[in-house]
Amino acid sequence: MAEKKTKYDELITQIDALYHEALALEKKFSPAIKKVHPHFRKSAKNLLHYLALRQHDIRELQEKLAQLGLSSLGQAEGHVLASLMAVRSHLCHLAVCPPVNKQLSVSYFENTKLLTKHTQSLLGPVPQNRTTRIMVTFSTDLAKDYDLVIRMLKAGMNCARINCAHDDEATWQAMVRNIRKAEKETGLPCTILFDLMGPKLRTGELKEGPKVIAIRPAHNELGLVASPAVVWLTGSDATPPHAVDATLPVEKSWVKQLQEGDQVNFKDTRGRKRTLSVIQKEKKGVVAHLLKTSYIATGTKLIVKNKTVASNTTIVGDLPATEIPILLKKDHFIVLHRASEPGEPAQFDANGHIIKPAHISCTLPEVFDLVKEGEPVLFDDGKIEGVITEVKKDELLVKITFAKDAGSLLRADKGINLPESNMLLNDLTAKDKQDVQFISKHADIVNLSFANHPSMVQALFTEIKKHKANKLAVMLKIETKESFKNLPYLLLTAMQSYPAGIMIARGDLAVECGWQRLAEVQEEILWLCEASHMPVVWATQVLETLAKKGRPSRAEITDAAMAQRADCVMLNKGPHIIEAITMLHDIMHRMQDHQHKKTSMLRSLHVSELTDE
Prior knowledge:
alpha/beta; 22% strand
């Protein structure tokens, strides 16, 4: 009996040590806690208690507690001191020692209440039939496609994300207008989040190619036309009545005279004869079918075969220039340069030898002063890998170490990651500051991209205060090694504003930390956010194949089910976005009966109902 009592006393001593260390860390950071918003005060203390707990390897203690049928502290994130004291109380009962009532910052019940309150304040009311919100990243077309915005809301979208790295204020304004209008029409709330571009390192512009578009009908397995290409001919920038494969700008008076059944002939850039068949006349244009692949350029002559028209000939107006991407293969070289001149592919001699390597600019010339020879470089979310072999004042020579066997294409505006370089980019860019002025008038949440250091968060607070946007919520996007390393400090800084949240940007995070570490890193972010009762958005490539191609992969379904542990899940818009929203809603509705954060919810299972055969 004495031996058992000694064993219990040892465990009680370990629990007491963890408790006192938690309070000691809270005391150490008391100045930071004082700066935290009152609504986050308890949560900030609990975060520090959790960090103190995780400074130790307590696996042996966990095993001993589990053997006694007690909590192994594996789900203590949201209520650390309460968990420690509950275990201590049971150990005291076993050891026949007097229980001790000690200070608790967050009780078991407060944990759920705090997270629910913080999430509703940030992301709006709880959706019907599920607890996890759905966020959708808007694309340019949603500035005009109001009907699709309505359908997305009805399908289950709760939050719209507008990325400041793309489009302009006029387009953003149109998106916001459509969202607010759709809210009123449907009675469904939608939180609007604007994503600051941040100090994102991207490839610069590429040299323009010819102003030509390729229009292709769909073919079946035998190479026969399965369905014609749909082309919108218009004399203005009017939106087509439905989805089309291409838009051709033509003279307004010419297109106005066309009628259904008219045949429009032309020769494409290869000199091949082609015909457009008008099948639908609209107020500001016509819809036509094209049965053969065609390359149409600015200036292509169109001739209508109808003697009753006033003018049977016109030319195709100004088309956007094509982009000439850079093809990179293993062991090729590419030059990154400060100068903003357009990039070009490599030049080859008659024998296929490179006489001039490919070159391209980058959006942050500051990097030339911060990188070193031998450091890795990753392009386009890690699809192309390289290493810096030479550093000059205005140029970096990069040797490609990984690309597809047939070569990988590098285009403009693609991400560049320098995972081992100390970038020291800890301030808002001039563009970010300009965008905050617009965001402060139109958004519910501003998302700080590349939130690497607390000073960046403070800089954002300064801009928000300057524009008197007191109700603007702040979210921090965790997407670099540095932001992950500084996460506790970032959380405490973010808590100075209310409400606030965290986005796990798994794309850049995987590239920065390594694909093999992504699962571990996102798990640790979820733990710290749960400890701080901080709402989390699970982002990047959720049901991506479904949204873009109409059919999900098996791995994506499992990933979407795991996303239930976050408070909001982000989808990227694609042609099949309604199906993606619907499926995500169904998955999360089912999973919430099985899982809450890390805790398995043991509802009855149909498979457990055994019957005699």
